[in-house]
Design goal:
Radius of gyration: 20 Å
Strand order of the largest sheet: 1-2-9-6
Mean pLDDT: 85
Strand content: 5-15%
Largest sheet: 4 strands, antiparallel
Structural class: alpha+beta
Number of strands: 13
Shape: globular
Number of helices: 14
Number of domains: 2
Length: 351
């Protein structure tokens, strides 16, 4: 595994829909049950509570940082102490309300290709030079904004329900916390061999958020690992970035297209061209058996909007700064700057 850096379920809201608890019950268990219900009411697909404790991967994470495996994601090195033990950054932290929001959208059977008049079908050649794919998590509005707004709603509901004041802090793929490990502790799923969180019924098409609190709440039960002997994600990774429960970020297409600010190693170009993604990558999720029946997004914010789901890379090569700004405003892929989009498009065109 690596610390969380982008994108990525025993108990979910569907398991607790009836567990609203007695509204007058101010016991920790009663408040925890209501928190899960509140999370469902504000639009989260899954929710659970994790205890604050030192990471079980502390030695590995420190070695990972010492080896410089974070690449250009320097914020991971800066916050490693908090990712190992959240209380080193937030001494008052006692419990973490972990939430997941489904973002899956089925690919359109026929949709206009952004920057071109031709149509694309979901069965077309993914590596066609006229079609550069965008990772599914970025098809709609920036998930950071979507989840953070709902976490604020959830916090207000908890403050009205609790009989005591408490400290809190919300994070969405930010801050000094290892969100996937916390989500595993909260019973939202298990860490798959592709290092993503997997729910047994809903798969892995989720983005995560956390509400850290000083409330001492009972934690949910973690879920058993159900990957078994399956190696589909490992076998399908075009750059061989995956080994069981470990990701080599330097070989990961998502890292290279979204985080690497410099040149992408030429040795990776053929595999990237074949994969056909201009930003991000979904291949290890697309082949996962647990994603056969994904839970579709339930909020309009994740509806497909241009330039998703695919864009003509030649259009990107001609982008001005103003074109980039118009295409990426309010979207998760805005972290890839104009020159990075052009660099990625060039690999898809010329390799």
């Amino acid at each position: 595994m690596i610390p969380d850096h982008s994108s990525f379920k025993s108990r979910g809201n569907d398991d607790h829909a009836s567990a609203t608890g007695n509204l007058s019950d101010q016991s920790p268990a009663g408040l925890a049950a209501r928190i899960r219900q509140f999370a469902s009411e504000v639009g989260f697909s899954l929710a659970g509570i994790a205890p604050v404790a030192e990471s079980s991967h502390a030695a590995y994470l420190r070695q990972w940082v010492e080896q410089g495996a974070y690449g250009q994601m320097h914020y991971l090195a800066r916050t490693i102490d908090g990712r190992i033990n959240l209380q080193s950054a937030l001494p008052w932290a006692r419990s973490v309300v972990c939430v997941g929001m489904a973002y899956y959208q089925p690919p359109p059977r026929e949709a206009p290709l952004h920057g071109d008049v031709s149509a694309i079908g979901e069965q077309e050649n993914a590596a066609a030079p006229e079609r550069a794919k965008i990772a599914r998590y970025a098809w709609g509005r920036d998930y950071h904004r979507v989840i953070y707004g709902r976490l604020r709603q959830l916090e207000r509901m908890i403050r009205r329900a609790a009989d005591q004041p408490f400290e809190s802090r919300s994070y969405v793929d930010t801050g000094p916390c290892s969100e996937r490990e916390l989500a595993v502790r909260a019973g939202l799923g298990w860490m798959g061999k592709n290092t993503l969180l997997i729910h047994p019924r809903h798969g892995s098409w989720f983005v995560l958020g956390e509400l850290v609190t000083s409330l001492d709440l009972p934690a949910d039960e973690p879920q058993a690992d159900h990957c078994g002997t399956c190696t589909r994600c490992l076998d399908a990774c075009p750059t061989s970035a995956l080994t069981p429960y470990r990701l080599d970020s330097m070989r990961c297409i998502s890292y290279q297209t979204l985080e690497n600010r410099g040149d992408i190693p030429p040795s990776l170009h053929p595999a990237m061209h074949k994969a056909g993604f201009i930003v991000g990558c979904d291949i290890c999720q697309e082949v996962c058996p647990f994603n056969r029946r994904p839970l579709a997004a339930s909020v309009a914010d994740f509806a497909i909007a241009d330039p998703a789901p695919a864009i003509n890379p030649r259009t990107v090569m001609a982008w001005t700064a103003a074109d980039w700004d118009a295409a990426t405003r309010g979207r998760a892929f805005r972290r890839a700057k104009t020159e990075m989009w052009r660099r990625n498009a060039g690999i898809l065109i010329h390799e």
